[in-house]
Amino acid sequence: MDTITYASSIRVKARYDVLVAGGGPAGICAAVAAARLGASVALVERYGVLGGNLTAGHVGPILGSVGEGTMRDELVSLLGVPDNDWIGETGKAHDVEKAKLALAEFVAAEKIDVYLQCSVFDVLRSGPVGHGPYGAPGDSPRAGAGPEDPAAGAPVVRGLVIASNEAPFILLGKVIIDATGDAIVSTLAGATVFKGREDGLMQPVTLEFTIEGVDESRGLICIGDVDNVQLFGKRFLDWCREQADAGKIPPSLAAVRLHPTVHPGERQVNTTQVCGVDITQVDQIFPADLQLRRQMVLLETFLRENVPGYEKARIIASGTTTGVRESRRVLGDYLIDASELAAGCRFPDVVVHNALFIVDIHNPAGAGQAEDHIQYCKPYDLPYRCFLPKGLEGLLVTGRCISGTHRAHASYRVMSICMAMGEATGMAAALAATRGCSPRKLPVSDLQSAMTARGIRLFD
Ligand SMILES: Cc1cc2nc3c(=O)[nH]c(=O)nc-3n(C[C@H](O)[C@H](O)[C@H](O)COP(=O)(O)OP(=O)(O)OC[C@H]3O[C@@H](n4cnc5c(N)ncnc54)[C@H](O)[C@@H]3O)c2cc1C
Questions:
Q1: Measured from the CA of 422, which atom of ligand 1 is nearest?
Q2: What does pTM read for this prediction?
């Protein structure tokens, strides 16, 4: 492969206590939490809208639950879905259009500089130069991938290089939070990252869309594989599989999930999928998006022609970007596994308490679930160490790309839990920046005290 080395002087536009890269559920909560502790904060988002999967990805309902007192509760109220339960039995998908404004107002109410349509494309770090790998498949971190010994002068991440409509610029931060979902900041900084399960396959990408015109007196709801809703005397999802076997829909679309939204007559459809896509490879994005959009139209026709109550269903909106369940995950000081989540793990350095969701692995190689039996979990904790990229200082990672295995990620990736993660890391970043220490040096008991003082319950 040809490479060209070039040097360039780039303007430093501003300095902050806390820089948050990525304005999804985790990044928004991180930025707001840091600002509420008095830190100067910048939030950098590559799209022209805040919300990540919650808006641009058109994903809903907000699933999962966490312990009392977190920003998750504030946000579900703000988005008009305060009754959402952890698994989606009673929950409704939010109004995505209204969420775009609600989230913008939520952030604008704090002293935060928001950089929209600005992409992080590099990081500034002190210490040994050069980047780590851009993500190896499988759950085993690549040997020698990142700096391993923090004591021996670990690199410190100090700033973000931003691509913008102006010209490239640099933002400097005392503490930086990687809330990009795809862990791009951590990757550029040289963190050890890994992708997918042992064979390298990740959960499929999906384009969610909304249909209106469903007759509520007849049109069923199906929240997913945990649902036994019946149609024509059999389990709806079994009926869908038969329809796929009969060639009415492609086999990969056999799990037709139809969530209610806050508006009667609407359904949020979480069914399209393309397997074998690695979204961190740019040449795979357009072909996947094209397939997903074709599937969306197929599904609209299938529903209209075959499912009672859906005769007049019509697509009214879809994601503006491919929905990515899984991409890179960062190796942190602790790597959490689903067996721990299933057992309801507790940690002395807990920063997210009583998180709850199933291990929801959409089949990386076909329709439905990857595992025969869905793994339920007991309410579990996430330790601060999962948010500290191994061997790097000045950096926290948050949201779906924290340090966990493929199976653990399949549980904590839901939006309620990502919001609580974001809040915890935002508070940690603000405290560390105020004290002039790296997040790793922040006594976790001080963070826990600050969280408890905010009303966040961390212990039973
Ligand atoms: C199809 C699908 C269905 C799902 N269903 C549900 C569901 O029903 N309920 C539920 O609770 N969860 C669901 N999830 C999971 C959930 O949506 C995500 O895991 C969650 O949004 C992760 O939040 P996050 O903030 O970590 O990342 P994201 O929501 O991915 O946000 C990351 C943000 O970072 C930005 N970013 C990335 N790179 C850069 C860069 N270089 N520079 C600047 N900004 C950058 C992105 O544009 C994005 O806004 C689903 C996910 C998908 C894909």
A1: 25
A2: 0.95
pLDDT(150) > 90: no
Whether 24 contacts 53, CB under 8 Å: yes
CATH of residue 379: 3.50.50.60
Output the CA 70–ligand 1 centroid distance in Å. Answer: 19
Same domain, 257 and 382: no
The answer to whether residues 383 and 447 belong to one domain is yes
Domain boundary among 298, 318, 338: 318
- Quick one: 244 and 333 in the same domain? no
Q: Which residues line ligand 1 (CB under 6 A)?
A: 21-27, 44-47, 52-54, 57, 59-64, 119-120, 179-182, 184, 206, 208, 270, 323-325, 399-400, 413-415, 418
- Residue of the CA atom closest to atom 17 of ligand 1: 53
Ligand 1 centroid to residue 57 C-alpha, Å: 7
Q: How many domains does the chain have?
A: 2
Q: In this predicted model, what pLDDT tens digit does every residue of 262-310 receive, in sequence order?
A: 999 999 999 999 999 999 999 999 999 999 999 999 999 999 999 999 9
CA dist 281 and 182 (Å) reads 11
Q: Which residues contact 397 (CB under 8 A, 6 or more apart)?
A: 177, 178, 179, 183, 185, 186, 191, 330, 332, 387, 388, 389, 403, 425
